[in-house]
Design brief:
Layout: E1 25-30, H1 38-41, E2 66-71, E3 74-78, E4 84-88, E5 94-98, E6 132-136, E7 142-146, H2 152-159, E8 177-182, E9 188-193, E10 220-226, H3 235-249, E11 258-263, H4 272-284, E12 288-291, H5 300-317
Parallel strand pairs: 1-2, 7-9, 7-10, 10-11, 11-12
Antiparallel strand pairs: 1-5, 3-4, 3-6, 8-9
Bound molecules: guanosine-5'-triphosphate (GTP) and magnesium ion.
Guanosine-5'-triphosphate (GTP) binds at residues 146, 148-154, 166-168, 170-173, 195-196, 263-264, 266-267, 293-295.
């Protein structure tokens, strides 16, 4: 509230300026960041307040926005309501998470012909507070899935220049690895190798489901089966087991195009008849299967061309 007071202008009328709006809280994706670790240590973020209005009809400055920089692939949810607030996939993409509180209105607005010296002003509105959950879902094109020890990381190392840890024991991979597969025509596809899944992963067994989020956005799945791993009657059981776990996490994962890769063929000897029946069984489900040895490199070239073929088909279908 303010009134104009000047030497030769008595009763100059109300001249209280408006208060500035508070700053917004904005989230912005940038390709120069790769993790959310900076949000592990500092957890409270505030945009600046708006400045108060002043006499002579001067509005206060609006508060500076707070921009939270995050890597591509970040999803922001309201922790309390579960509402999805932002899903950031492009460089420089911005989403307004919390608008700043509105600034108040100075008494200049409240003058009427009857009330020339209003002693009222409208106070600014308080800002909002939210508890947010930030999570990172990788933007890989291809997801590598399979039981522990199936040879996923060995295959990733074959298909790309990545050098993930490989070990002759389950759960060698504890965090997803990424690699890039480059094709003849300059096409390059990002492959994500995630930790092995086991029966009951949906109930938290093994490393659980949490890494499946890394393949949610992939366009093609490579489902790796270990031809030597047969505690059950039939290797197809392994295939179904993993599909059940995927369905328990997110049924839509089952609709992704996939190639079944039958690995460790170098250890398999000459039991070709078993392989033919396995391939036939999968074909009946409309699933293509390719035998390889990630260790010796047998079948890798064919796998690469099948991947690129499938990729192109996918692109054509979705353009
Ligand atoms: N003989 C043979 N061994 C293989 C082949 N592929 C992988 N291996 C071996 O299988 C073991 C497991 O390989 P990884 O690549 O670590 O398997 P993974 O699926 O990434 O395993 P987790 O990360 O633990 O889920 C290692 O000892 C590899 O050397 C193959 O084609 N033939
Ligand atoms: Mg691995």
């Amino acid at each position: 509230m303010s009134f104009r007071r000047e030497k030769y202008i008595p009763k100059g009328g109300p001249d209280g300026g408006d208060g500035g709006d508070g700053g917004n809280i904005i989230v912005k994706a940038t390709k120069s960041l790769f993790s959310l670790t900076q949000y592990a240590s500092s957890k409270n973020f505030k945009a600046r307040r708006g400045e108060p209005g002043r006499g002579k009809n001067q509005s206060g400055k609006r508060g500076r926005d707070l921009v939270l920089q995050v890597p591509l692939g970040t999803v922001v949810e309201d922790l309390d309501t579960g509402e999805l607030l932002a899903d950031l996939v492009h460089d420089n993409q911005e989403v307004l998470l919390i608008p700043g509180g509105k600034g108040g209105k100075g008494n200049q607005h409240f003058a009427t012909s009857k009330k020339r010296a209003p002693k009222i002003a409208q106070p600014g509105l308080p800002g909002q507070e939210k508890r947010l959950r930030l999570s990172l879902k990788s933007l890989a094109d291809i997801g590598l899935i399979g039981l522990p020890n199936a040879g996923k990381s060995t295959l990733l190392a074959r298909l790309s220049t990545a050098s993930p840890k490989i070990g002759d024991y389950p759960f060698t991979t504890v965090f997803p690895n990424l690699g890039v597969l480059t094709g003849d025509e300059g096409l390059s596809l990002v492959i994500a190798d995630i930790p092995g899944l086991i029966e009951g992963a949906s109930r938290g067994r093994g490393l659980g489901h949490r890494f499946l989020k890394h393949i949610e956005r992939t366009k093609l799945l490579l489902h790796l089966l270990d031809v030597t791993f047969q505690p059950r009657e039939d290797i197809l059981e392994d295939f179904h087991l993993l599909r059940r776990e995927m369905a328990a996490y997110e049924p839509a994962l089952l609709d992704k195009p996939q190639i079944v890769v039958i690995n460790k063929m170098d250890l398999y000897g000459n039991r070709h008849r078993d392989l033919v029946s396995l391939k036939n069984a999968l074909r009946k489900m409309d699933v293509e299967a390719l035998p390889i040895s990630a260790l010796t490199g047998d079948g890798i070239q064919e796998l690469e061309s099948t991947i690129f073929e499938k990729w192109k088909m996918y692109q054509e279908k979705n353009c």
